[in-house]
User: Fold this.
Amino acid sequence: MPINYYIFTALALFSIGIIGVLTRRNAIIIFMCIELMLNAVNLLLVAFSKMQLEDMNRGILKIANNGTDAQLFVFFIMVVAAAEVTVGLAIIVMMYRNTHSVDVNFLNRLKN
Amino acid sequence: MNITHILFWILTLMALGSALMVITSKNPVYSVLFLIATFFAISGHYILLNAQFLAIVNLIVYAGAIMVLFLFVIMLMNLNAETEPQKNKWLKFAGTIAGGCLLLIMVAAIKDADAKSTIVLMKQGETGLIHNLGNVLFKDYVVPFEISSVLFLSAMVGAVVLGKKE
Amino acid sequence: MNNIIDYVWLVPLFPLVGFLLNGLLRNSLSKPLTGIIGSGSILASFVVSVLIFMQVKTGATGIVTLFDFISYDKTNIPFAFQVDQLSSLFLLIITGIGFLIHLYSTAYMHDETDMHFARYFAYLNLFVFSMLLLVLGANYVIMFIGWEGVGLCSYLLIGYWFKNIEYTSAAKKAFVMNRIGDLGFLLAVFWILSKLGTVTYSEVFEKVNLLSANDITIITLLLFVGATGKSAQIPLYTWLPDAMAGPTPVSALIHAATMVTAGIYMIARSNILYTMAPTTQAVVTIIGLATALFAATIALKQNDIKKVLAYSTVSQLGYMFLGLGVGAFTGAVFHVMTHAFFKALLFLGAGSVIHAMHHEQDIRNMGGLKKYLPITHITFLLGCLAIAGIPPFSGFFSKDEILAAAYAKNPILYVLGVAGALMTAFYMFRLYAMTFLGKFRGTHEQEHHLHESPAAMTIPLIVLAALSVVGGLVGIPEVLAHNAHALEEFLAPVFAKSTALAKPHEIPHSTELLMMGGVTALVLGIIAYAWGKFSKYEKSAEESAGFGKVLENKWYVDEIYEAVITKPVNAFGKLLAKVDKYGIDWVVNGVGRSVQYASRQVRLLQSGQVGNYVLLMVVGIIILFAIQIFLKK
Assistant:
């Protein structure tokens, strides 16, 4: 598969995530859209990691374990996302406890 | 058009379709379920790219742990289609247009890239195997790996502190 | 101390320390202490200067480098002092006469409050310090520091009584006139630097042959512009008479020991450049002679005792420039020296008179002071004789040397010079007769209080009088005694190159003797006439008319300057002020107002709705991508 297909797939996923953030008011859905965007990036990274391998097979690049770095980045992104989700969900739970709503428009105190 | 290509298209359509459903469904529980479907599709892509380790981790961590956490919180709050807050439709429209524009402009920016026709290797290569990744992770990336454990610890503590009743 | 020259930095250091002590502690020092610090520091400098002079007399000279002042690329301007015959002579004049004036000031300024008394001495010390820097500097940049320093100090001292608005404007005038000259000096220094890459005297004079004739002419002319400012020559002379606003000892200091001699010193220092630029020499000659005559005519009709002396200074400075112009560098320096003696004497004498008369300066209200102020009278008379050029007083020798050189160049210069000298004799004895002879014309109260000045004032007078009488003996011309011109011999190394280049004309001894005798006889006649006419002067109400009135009003030069320069500049300034107020201010305020308005509007965007922020962010990203795409194409 040419790399373009993967790029456009990831872009589409990313844009869907952004549209979700822009159109929804539910904090949890927004949060999920962010996860969606992270996964779009992950997909792209994995695709790129395999693209490098093609060059190596043709003898242009001569590095062993080529592409493992990219996959490890994906791994770390997942690690960070997991940590982020725990804290984020804790914040949303607390917010729900105080306002009985998960509407982000209530959270406009940053204004002042 | 071999089997790999067919699988690619199926998985892509599935990912995009369920992603769209995530942001359009009224009921948050459905959103979560569609997101899990998206993650399954992405994991399928990983397998196609011979990145088995990431595919499994994605399923276990994302589709398993994280999404269950989401589902759990949603059910805890008893959110459903009726309680879902709605933006006014003009803002929704504007958001959709903006997102569409972003997609358009990024595609326009990238479509002429030099590497556009580089072939991505499917079903082969040892990069994504656990043996390989483990070697690099515990040799070159051992310090970030350890630091990420500290990050988890602090996230845990943070979650507990935030969730505690004052 | 094997070689005192290495310790030359002590000379300017003492006045600097005195300035700092008096200036910083002015609120806590008592008057006697202030006087001791002020005068003592100059005395210490004088002692060192004498030691240095003794050393230099044996033929030793040297350049003492203290540290690198400005250093870039290949150009290096060290902070260095040059000790040679010329600078050591000036050191003696400055510190010696400076000390006498300091001593005199302790008595003259005694009525001031402690704080202002200390301020006065601090300025005085700074003045001397700047002047020492000026003459000691081994390059034009160090000279320029001193050059600016004396300008600043003259401003501070002329405006010493700053509560009087007229005095402060006189100070401003002095400062502005000096600045005009300084600009010329600065340009000359830059010119030298750009052409030769060095401003150190020795190197400049060495490389002088590398300069084209045009360059030399321009440099010397620019330097001369600087000199006209400092040394009060046409057209920048008007500040000097106004400088009388300062305390009288300050006038003495400015006119005799420091400041006005700076221009002479600078040209004498750069004598090689001038010798190689005949055009400039001609300009210097003409300006010098014109100033000498012009100022002398003004002095004829002045009634303020200090104004007469001021114009006489301008006139005498004109003679010095005449000397420089015709190549008689030794004569000019000689005249600087003798003039320093008798002009300091005359000013301090005038100060003594003013002190006795309770700040009355109009000679029409004086007269008959002979019996009240015996010491002042005698010394003042000696000073008048010296400046009038009666042999064997000092003024005779120096002026004669300049005039002889002028004759050698062109007899017309000589005739005009003699005319000026006759006028000098006339106005000096008019001044003398109206002040000291006849009967007293002031009020009874003033007459009651008339008294001789205290010792601190009379001692400097006596010392200066003695110097005025015998000072000329160091420069007896060849005609009168063989090989007796000690000064010329002493200064010969400084002017050696110029002398070799110029080959001064010799005039027959008989002619010179005849001229001397003739001039002396004429001067004596003029003195007798003035003496007779003004000793019986009666106050009359009638105003002088015609030409006399023009002279009394100083040829209306101040008024002409006012009309031709000051008024248009003021009008232009007012126009610019309007442009500033309605044009530039409007734009500046407009920018401020529009920013305020815009920020009030932009503030509304900060709604606190995170969704809006995200939307804006996305729009921003879209715009950036779009720009990137379109710029690529």
User: Anything to note?
Assistant: Chain A touches chain C at residues 18, 21-22, 25, 104-105, 107-112 (CB under 8 Å). Helices of chain A lie at 3-23, 27-57, 68-99. The mean pLDDT of chain A is 83.
